[in-house]
Amino acid sequence: MLFFIAGARPNFMKVAPLIKCVRACAASGGHDGPALEYRLVHTGQHYDAQMSGTFFDELGIPAPDFNLEVGSGSHAVQTAAIMTRFEAVCLNERPDWVVVVGDVNSSLACALVAAKLGIKVAHVEAGLRSFDRTMPEEINRIVTDALADLLLTPSADANANLRREGVPEAKIRLVGNIMIDSLVEHLDQARARGTLSALGLQPRSFVYATLHRPANVDERETLTGIMDQLMSLARRMPVVFPVHPRTRRRLCEFGIPFENTAALKILDPVGYHDSLCLTEQARFVLTDSGGLQEESTFFRTPCLTLRPNTERPVTIQLGSNRLTSLPSLEADIDRVLSGEPRTGTVPPLWDGHAAPRVLDALLAA
Ligand code: UD1
Question: Whose CA is nearest to atom 21 of ligand 1?
Fold first, then answer.
C-alpha cells in the first residue's frame, strides 16, 4: 500500500497527478492489485478553504482518507504534532511506501516517522538545494533526502546535488517535474475561467505578484520596502497581489496600510486555475514562491524572484527566471519590461508525464 502525503498548498498539485495515475493504472489492470492500493493523508498544515479545500475541488483530489488536522504552530510544534498523529496511522495501516512531495514541514515529519518505523520513503522533488540553511525548507529537503529510499528528481541539477552528497545512484531517478503534470492537465480549464476579464486586465499588461517567505514578510522594514515597491510598480502597470495568510498577518501586525485599488489589486489567495491564468498572461511574475518560478518557466513568462538564491537553478539557466533583491528591484523591473515578453525554454521532462515515471520507479523499487 502507498501512502501519499499532502499538507500545504504547494503539495496538492504534486499529489493530484500521482493519485490519478495510480487509479488509472489500477483500473486498467496494469499491475497486480495490492501494490496499487493507496491512502491519501492530509496533515492539515494548511486548512483554510482558500489554502486547501479549493485546491482539492479544482484538482479533483478525492477526500483524504486521514486528516491529521494539525493546524498552524511553530516549526517544532507543527512538526511534532504531525509526527505524533502520523505515527499512529502508520502503526495501524502499515503502508509499504510513504510518498512525500516537496519541502514543507509535513514532508519532513512524515518521512521521519516512516523511516523510524522501517517503512520505505519515496521523495518526489528530491535533490533541490538552495544551499541556504536559513530557509526552513532547505533543512526539510536535506533531512528528507537523507532518509529517503527512493529519490525522484525534477531536473539534472538535483541528481548532481544528491551524487555530491553521496546518495547511491541506485536510489535516484530523474522523473521530471510533477507540478507540470497538473499544469498541463488543467490548462484548458484555467483558460476558460475568464480570470482576466473578471479583474479588468488585459493580457501581458499586468504584473502577478506573490510573497510569503519569512525572509520577505516577517520583518517590518523589509515588508514596508516591498509594499512601497509594489505601489510604485502599480503606477506603471496594474499589479495583482493575492495575499498569503502569513503576509496578511504581518501587514496587520506591522500596521502597514494595504488597500485594494484598481492599480494594486490586493486579493485573498487565489485558486489554482486563476493562478495558472495569471501566470500565463502576466507581463511578468514577481514572487518568492518555488512553484511560481517553475510555472512561469513553463509558460516562458518572465519571472523576478525576490530571493538571494533558488533551489531551482534550472529556471534561471534554461527558464525565464532571474533573482532580484529589494535594492535592485527597480532596475530589474526596467530590464524585464524592455525585454521580450516571453523568454527561456522549458526544461527536459517538464512534459506532463512525470507521474507515470514516478509510479514506474515505485513499482520497480
Ligand atoms: C508553508 C511552507 C512553505 C510553502 C508555503 C506555501 C513550511 C516550512 N513552509 O509556509 O514552504 O512555500 O507553505 O503556502 O512548511 N495560515 C492560515 N491558514 C492556513 C495555513 C496557514 O491562516 O490554511 C497562516 C497561519 O497564521 C500560519 C501561517 O499562515 O501560522 C503560516 O503557515 P505555515 O504552514 O506555518 O507556513 P507557510 O508560510 O504557509
Answer: 46
CB of 45 sitting under 6 A from ligand 1: yes
Residue 41 is part of which domain span?
A: 2-176+350-364
Residue 30 has what pLDDT? 64
Residue 274 and residue 233 share a domain: yes
Query: Degrees (nearest 5) of the Cα angle 319, 194, 203?
Result: 45
- In total, the chain counts a number of residues equal to 365
| Ranges of the chain whose pLDDT falls below 50 | none
Separation of CA 50 and ligand 1 centre (Å) = 12
Q: Is 186 in the pocket of ligand 1 (CB under 6 A)?
A: no
Cα-to-centroid distance, 140 and ligand 1 (Å): 14
CA angle 25, 292, 210 (to 5 degrees): 135
Cα separations (Å) of 244 from 209, 214, 217? 11, 11, 10
Q: How far is the CA of 45 from the centre of ligand 1 (A)?
A: 7
Per the structure block, which three cell numbers stand in for 339?
Answer: 525585454
Residue to mutate, 42, 45, 50, 68, ligand 1, most ligand atoms under 8 Å from C-beta: 45
Residue 342 lies in a domain: no
Residues recognised as catalytic: 212
Q: What is the pLDDT of residue 195?
A: 98
* Torsion 199-204-205-210 (CA) sign: positive
The CA-atom distances, in angstroms, between 236 and each of 190, 199, 330, 338 are 27, 17, 12, 13
Domain count, the chain: 2
Q: What is the pLDDT of residue 32?
A: 58
Q: Which atom of ligand 1 is nearest to the CA of 104?
A: 15
7 and 144 co-located in one domain: yes
pLDDT of residue 27: 85
Q: Tell me, what's the pLDDT at 230?
A: 97
Same domain, 127 and 245: no
Report helix, strand or coil for 214: helix
Output the pLDDT for position 177. 98
